[in-house]
Amino acid sequence: MFFKFIKLAFAVVIFFSASLSAKESTEFEIRNTHTLKIKSEVSGLEYELYIRLPNDYSENNKKYPLVLLNDTGYSVAVASGIVHLMAGRDIEDVIIVGISYSKGHNPLLSRTRDYTPTYAPNEKRGHSLEVQKYSGKASQYISFISDEVFPLINQTYRIRQDKKIFVGHSYGGLLGANILITNSELFDYYILGSPSFWYDNKVMFRLESDFAKNNKAMKASVFMYIGSEEGSMVEEMLAFENQLKSRDYQGLSIQSKVLSGLTHHSAFAVLLTDGLQKAVPRQSKGS
Amino acid sequence: MFFKFIKLAFAVVIFFSASLSAKESTEFEIRNTHTLKIKSEVSGLEYELYIRLPNDYSENNKKYPLVLLNDTGYSVAVASGIVHLMAGRDIEDVIIVGISYSKGHNPLLSRTRDYTPTYAPNEKRGHSLEVQKYSGKASQYISFISDEVFPLINQTYRIRQDKKIFVGHSYGGLLGANILITNSELFDYYILGSPSFWYDNKVMFRLESDFAKNNKAMKASVFMYIGSEEGSMVEEMLAFENQLKSRDYQGLSIQSKVLSGLTHHSAFAVLLTDGLQKAVPRQSKGS
């Protein structure tokens, strides 16, 4: 345990702002946020974690639900604004943690590598065949979340261990489905938006079938969403929901919603609003 | 004209980041954003403008629609994320400009002063009777937008003069309704979320009636939204829509939507997604 802690201490570098007075940037900064740097021991890849704490975090000793995001190019901004408005009113306040793309890499390469379950060099619906060469490292990335990100944020922040929420959209939704069938206990709630179930000849359906052969339980509450304007992806999401339901997994609750009039890119803010209301409604038992 | 320019040059201080290398902050920064400082000559109040430019802004000479936001504590983050996802796909890319609360003041005082149409010291539904003492300065704030903010951003950025979009929520929606009946030509599109039409014994209905006595035109496209869970505010918004429609103003297009299952604070991200799709759909004529 102590050895693990020491390893962790070396693996991460935590930035604290000694002084803001020398700040020269004029970029728009989201309040109550800061950045942790983390280098994965397993992959050697470097990431940043973007943290948003509740407004009154330092004024109490409460533990808070965790909302874990990927694709931080848009997700942290949207989630921070939505939580600012809804926290304490529609939903419990939460700690947001966004995992950046790996430092020094093209974001499209990073998300293809980290979020896809299988190596599929010929997948033409991905970002490009060039980045598909790096595909299929989700299990390494899931271990990174489990073994490196979680220990760091659990020792740094007061996080409720019974209310860990995964949010993923598109490839991030595919990643969430993958976590569900490999490490479902990693999160309590899964908000999966417009998941890319088409990936690699719908490989996620096969991976789930393999899982079902040897497993009877899947402890998680899953909320899946898709825009009505997303073509064949609508049917694919509903088919995956049906496949999961047909297993009658012990502990699994799953529901889905087709969002009328919305597209792949307009659905995110709407589904995040709805998903957070379902996962951490204010009426739920307090901490 | 030249004199006006000189005045403007003195009235504002534009920060440009000489170097980001000395940056010490670890707050989360939204990409493609920066901050302008502006001091109102009329009121003496100081504000910041938070600007988000399109990703390819510096690579072309195109003009872009303007999205003007208030209540920047949440609106800039939500809008930046939504535009990041939707721009070039569901909507035209836009320039976002958020006007901060006045520097050195309580945000609740600032928004009560700047966004409310009338002095109403006894309005009990406001933030507090204490800040109501400062209420009713919207006409001064509208002049600030018109005479100081617009000249600055028009000379600094390439903005389409036929696609200026106002976004306001709650008191910000009330402010938008006020602009509509005092300076409707200031914006081409009005996205008004959950407007506080209850304010000061529903004074906005009376102000609109006064306007209607002497005016036959109101050149604007208005999109109004409210959450179905907002109680009497739902009926008030629909009543205001009906009152506007009953005038048969030349040039006015107005539509509204009651957002199922949403509250005052969960409605914003949803209505912004919908409103931008209506105001600047990608299919519309390009610039």
UniProtKB/TrEMBL annotation, chains A, B:
Key words, A-Z: Hydrolase, Signal
GO molecular function terms noted in the UniProt entry: hydrolase activity
Signal peptide start and end residues: 1-22
Protein name (database record): Alpha/beta hydrolase
Pfam family, one: Esterase
Family: Belongs to the esterase D family.
InterPro entries: AB_hydrolase_fold, Esterase-like, Siderophore_Hydrolase_D
